Amino acid sequence: MSYVDEIYERVVAQNPGEPEFHQAVKEVLDSLKLVIDANEEKYRREGILERFTEPERIVSFRVPWVDDNGNILQVNIEHISSVSESEAGDYAKRTLNMGNEKGWMSDYRYKVSETDDGFLVVFVSGEANKAMMNRLLYTVFFVLAGSFLLILLLIPLTLFVGVYYFAGRKYYFISLLILLECMLPFFLIFEGRKPQARELVLIAVLVALNVAGRAAFFMLPEFKPVVAMTILAGVAFGGETGFLVGAMTMLVSNMLFSQGPWTPWQMFAMGIIGWLAGVLYRKGVLRRGRLSLCIFGVIASTIIYGGIMNPASALMWSNTVNWKIILSYYVTGIPVDLVRAVATFIFLWLGAEPMLEKLDRIKVKYGLAC
């Protein structure tokens, strides 16, 4: 028996004699069946459907009283916390029982729900809800498009201006601009769902851990856990958070390792790694297994980070830039890139699974869906 069928039978058994509620739950479960069946064990482990199908608490009691004519009467008083007074007024003239009250409540409850994994679940019924669905999709589209433009167009343009118009001398100013541009997608994504302080604190803690990890291995050039931690942040909390963790880590840690014209490039390179980790994981290309994460870590350390920082070094230190000079920087940078790749592989192989388990626990415990 599938997870969806088990949940439906459980709801029927726990709420007997309430066919309206059973119908509302069945419609929702049928609409989610394809998604749930594709990754059934994960949803079962997180108890996602159990949370969705738990009915809203209904307080119901009777008050007997005697009117002025001496007649003994009683009044049923009921309260459903998820329904406003204006919505309840529409149903005041109907004959309600516990089943259709729960079913009516489910119509409102399942319009928009968000899981701990960031999946948006929408239950649509009626023209008004379809209009709401369209507005929601347009909002998500424009937010994601804005994030894409900021990360892939605006930040490289800022780096270009810093190199060619300021000759790399205004690197503090350029770093500040990139930091602000990194934060914009983050705030755009969370604008629609009112981010809580706990989410911002969590990201600050991840940055602090990353900085501490880089400082702890200061005696080993490029043998650092920074790439590994940035990848895990992107996988656990999404691409925008991964980008912000990677970029902020390089800016803050360079206060210990020295700031310079290389700081904006390091911010962008490490941020891109975190962003790609989050995006590829959401698309199903990157898996949570150790081997998959380690392979991506090696590629990110050599091709992405090295592919950005090696030509950046040529721009910063060479008087003339041509393909031969850029190629020479790539060749001389291979040993450094390999050391970074080995370090990332080791840290991910040893720490990816326990670290992701801790991050998942934090998401569940504090209700985070980054």
The mean pLDDT is: 75
Low-confidence stretches: 82-95, 107-130
Please give the order of strands in the largest beta sheet. 1-2
How many helices?
14
Give a brief description:
This protein is mainly alpha-helical. It contains 14 helices and 4 strands.
Overview of this structure, please?
With 370 residues, the chain is mainly alpha-helical. 72% of the residues lie in helices and 6% in strands. The protein contains 14 helices and four strands. It has helices at 3-14, 19-38, 40-46, 48-53, 85-90, 98-109, 127-164, 171-191, 197-216, 226-237, 239-257, 263-282, 290-317, 323-366, and strands at residues 58-66, 72-80, 112-114, 120-122.
Characteristics:
mainly alpha
Topology:
Elements: H1 3-14, H2 19-38, H3 40-46, H4 48-53, E1 58-66, E2 72-80, H5 85-90, H6 98-109, E3 112-114, E4 120-122, H7 127-164, H8 171-191, H9 197-216, H10 226-237, H11 239-257, H12 263-282, H13 290-317, H14 323-366
Antiparallel strand pairs: 1-2, 3-4
Helix pairs in contact: 1-2, 2-6, 7-8, 7-12, 8-11, 8-12, 9-10, 9-11, 10-11, 10-12, 10-14, 11-12, 12-13, 13-14
